[in-house]
Amino acid sequence: MMQQFSFSYRLVPSFQDLATEDKLLASAAQAAMRRAYAPYSKFQVGASLLLKSGLVVEGNNQENIAYPSGLCAERVALFYAGANYPEDPIVKICIVAEGDLMPSGALLSPCGSCRQVMLESEARQNNPIEVLLVQRSGEILILDSVQNLLPFGFTK
C-alpha cells in the first residue's frame, strides 16, 4: 500500500518581512557564520537558537584537517545549549550559509547528522522547535517542527 508524507512550510520573501524576533535570530546566525572556521571547504555556516528564556545561543561550523573531527554549526549551538542551559527549551533555530557548496539557487538544509540531533533535541524537550532556513536568494523557509526535516528519524 502506497503511503505519503507531506508537510507545510511558510516562505517569507525577505529578511525585511520577518517578525522582529526572527530578524534578531537571523542576524545572530549571520554573525556566527562570519566567525566560522572553514579553511578547507570554504563553506561557512551559522546557527542561532532562541531559548524560551529569550536567550540567543550561536554556533558555527568548526573544521579540522583531520576530517571528520570538525563539527557543524547546528550541533555546536545545540550541544552548547544542552550543556549550559539544559532546562531552557529551544523555541527556534535559524541556519544560514555561504560558500561554493551553497550556490544561490540551492536549497539550504541541515545535514543528516544535524537533523537527527535537532530531532532528538525536540523530542527531549517534548516541544516542537521552529526551523528557519535562510536561503542565498534571501527567502526564508520556516518549518513548524524539526520532525518535518526528518520524518523517519531515530526515536526512543
Question: Mind explaining what this structure looks like?
Answer:
The chain has three helices and six strands. The protein is of the alpha+beta class. It has one domain: Cytidine Deaminase, domain 2, CATH 3.40.140. Strands 1-6-5-4-2-3 form a six-stranded mixed beta sheet, sandwiched between helices. Helix 2 packs parallel to helix 3. The chain is globular.
**Overall number of strands:** 6
Q: Could you report the average pLDDT, rounded to the nearest whole number?
A: 95
Quaternary organisation: single chain
The N- and C-terminal alpha carbons lie at a distance of 26 Å
User: Could you name the CATH topology?
Assistant: Cytidine Deaminase, domain 2
Can you tell me the CATH superfamily? Answer: Cytidine Deaminase, domain 2
Looking at this protein, list some descriptive labels.
six-stranded mixed sheet; globular; Cytidine Deaminase, domain 2
Topology:
Blueprint: E1 9-12, H1 20-34, E2 44-51, E3 56-60, H2 73-84, E4 90-98, H3 112-125, E5 130-134, E6 140-143
In short:
By secondary structure, the chain is an alpha+beta fold. The protein is 26% helix and 22% strand.
